[in-house]
Design goal:
By secondary structure, the chain is an alpha+beta fold. The protein has helices at about 5-20, 40-45, 65-75, 90-95, 110-115, 165-175; strands at about 25-30, 45-60, 65, 95-110, 135-140, 150. The chain has one domain (about 5-170).
């Protein structure tokens, strides 16, 4: 896509929503765990509201694996709605690291009136935006009990897939992006 495509799409979407809906706020997350502090939201003057910690798993070859994907691999015992997280032994057996990282919270009030209402929010909304230096990861290697903190993203976004093959194959079959995944 051309330079600044994300910002252009976001701007046009906000304009359309203001003209055609009665939406009061746009709320979104920037995926800090994959190295994105939310620069597109910052450029669009969204307000920042802190972060939460999320997690994912990483295979021994560096593939990022979503927790729901792992749940589909593990035995689903009992009445657990979505399956369970791997225990210590399963992480060790599958040679998976558990990674914790940040998700950054953003909101866009659709008018000045709604921006004022945010003063009563339990979240402190401001323009003190996170940057790349705010990205950190906590890594628990297979068989380890403790997390190690790093400022280097502990997985790669390469095209080597083992755990995500089924998801990617399904997506490829339903899309016109086959060349992207070669």
């Amino acid at each position: 896509m051309p330079k600044n495509s994300e910002s252009q799409l976001l701007s046009l979407s906000i304009k359309w929503l203001k003209e055609n809906t009665d939406i009061k706020y746009l709320f979104t997350w920037a995926d800090g765990i994959v190295g994105k502090p939310g620069y597109v939201y910052q450029a669009a003057n969204f307000l920042y509201g802190g972060f939460s910690i999320t997690d994912t798993y990483v295979s021994e070859n560096g593939e990022k694996i979503h927790p729901r994907t792992i749940q589909g691999i593990l035995p689903n015992e009992g009445e657990v709605k979505y399956g369970h997280r791997p225990n210590f032994e399963q992480l060790k057996e599958l040679k998976l690291s558990r990674i914790k990282g940040k998700q950054f919270r953003y909101i866009y009030p659709m008018s000045k009136k709604y921006r004022k209402y945010l003063k009563k929010s339990t979240v402190e909304w401001n323009l003190n935006y996170p940057k790349h230096s705010d990205l950190i990861w906590r890594v628990k290697a297979p068989g380890e009990k403790d997390y190690i903190t790093t400022e280097i993203m502990p997985f790669n976004m390469s095209k080597e897939y083992e755990y995500n093959k089924k998801n990617i194959s399904t997506y490829k079959a339903e899309s016109n992006l086959n060349d992207f995944f070669k």
